[in-house]
Design a protein that fits this description.
The chain is of the alpha/beta class and about 450 residues long. About 25% of the residues lie in helices and about 25% in strands. A hairpin with a 2-residue loop joins strand 15 and strand 16. The longest helix is centred in the middle third of the chain and has 18 residues. It is globular and about 75 Å long. The protein binds thymidine-5'-diphosphate and magnesium ion.
Length: about 450
Amino acid sequence: MAKIKSKWVCQNCGYETAKSLGRCPECGRWGTFTEETQEVRTGLKTPALSDSMPCLIDEIEIDRSIRVSTGIEEFDRVLGGGLVQGSLILLAGDPGIGKSTILLQTSNSVCANGKKILYVSAEESASQIKLRAQRLKVKSDKLYIYSQTNFDTIKSRIDEMKPDMLVIDSIQAVYSSDISSSPGSVSQIRECTNILMDIAKNKNITVVVIGHVTKDGNIAGPKVLEHMVDTVIYFEGDRYKSYRLLRCMKNRFGTTNEVGVFNMCDDGLHEISNPSELFLNERTKNITPGSVVIATNEGTRPLLIEIQALVGTTSYPSPRRVSNGIDYNRLLQILAVLEKRIGLNLSKQDVYVNVIGGLEIDEPAADLGVALAVATCARDVIVSPDTVIVGEIGLSGEIRTVNNLDKRIKEAAKLGFKKIIIPKTGKTDLNEDIKIIECARLMDAISACVYKEDALLPN
Ligand code: TYD
Ligand code: MG
């Protein structure tokens, strides 16, 4: 017989104890414990995937997993070529970012390939979804919408219907009646995901689960959720801008470095196959000092974006350094190099650096762009508007090489830029319609890209 067990669970990390604690010993958060009760069943909860024997690696036949296209090229790329039949995918993102929208659009095109889909909505009524579907022009005789939160009922509908694909919108809103804690609690999420994993693997149904994100950007629920699923995809973007990024964080069936870019319009999400144009189209014709274009990498794809810097005399006791979109410590390091190596005195200057479009750049290839934005703004000169800048800066002021240089150069040429400043690597044999300028040191790069180079000589 099953017995009821009570435990205290940290709602942040899933740590369990027998009694309540003020501070979680695992994640260090305060006041995160809530009491949850659970029926303890004896025996294995989920059956083993298959009763196979150990065999030699050379003798294993590759099961070329069948992939189903989502009908959205950008989404397919992020998934590594489409949805793998029988896999469990977690799509996480802020509320209102467009998770339900992208999955409804995906469902529409997957149905068009003759697949039956059960879309379980635990947050919205069927008529609310119908309204959205009309807006998105979703029309299919194979797409079933089911508004339900009870997981046991959902499970029996799955058994009856035998869909090819299942969407759960969202994992925090469904609950299993085996567990008495409220929907969205760690035990509920863990239990429901366990059942979904079983459904995906044993019934060969592709399961896509929507997950909410907490204030600090993590998927709400235990970390084990991310370990259990096959693929974790984040849907992110600036709520006040219309573009959205689809980013893969974990993928058992492909790489994790692909990014998909979308635009949220009145009639749903549209793919953007050339994102650089999107990020540069607001660039004014009259370039002001402190604005540069860099070629960064989003996944395996080059992306041209604008970085702006503002440098001005401070009115604070200690000057301010503000960075949006690049690492704060990285900015401090670049400023230190600028002071030491080219004699730019910033000790009484506030420095603000902003990556346009709300993007986050976490690669050092943006260093040179940031340095030139700050240096040109401080000296009130402009970087030629037809120039793209790429390079990492070392502490001695040398410019270091970066990966995927060819792709970045090609992207700059494709978008009509006339010059690109790159580290000295001997990569000038590319036959592109762009002037490639190799620079070994920071000072060379400055001379190569500004209009009035004298203005930047050491003071
Ligand atoms: P939704 O998919 O409901 O977000 P989520 O499921 O991630 O919470 O999308 C909600 C937002 O998207 C909403 O604020 C309105 C906007 N939207 C559009 O701009 N165009 C559209 O065609 C649709 C369906 C939604
Ligand atoms: Mg939703």
